[in-house]
Amino acid sequence: MTDSPLAFARQAVEVARAALPPHSSRFSRQDFTQHQLVALLAVKQFLRVGYRGLVAYLRDWAELREALGLEQVPHFTTPQKALSRLKKKTPMPS
After folding, report:
1. Helix H segments across 20-73?
2. Where are the domains of the chain?
3. In this structure, are residues 74 and 59 in contact, taking their beta carbons and an 8 Å threshold?
């Protein structure tokens, strides 16, 4: 484990790449990959901030955007909705 948010973000993207396809559907908007969205959610937990706080960090921190491969800063509801979609697809343990 690392204490660096940048190293954590890079690692989160790599883990997500190994586990998920880039997009959930060929018809999706494809503004962000599932890898980026999952990594965003992981970084949110790592930084212990809410969705709006995460977006504020992204706006102010170019190196973090670069580590996540983001060309634009998502709206705060984007990772929120991604989490909702991922929860629907994830089988819950019995």
Report:
1. 34-47, 51-60, 62-68
2. 5-86
3. no
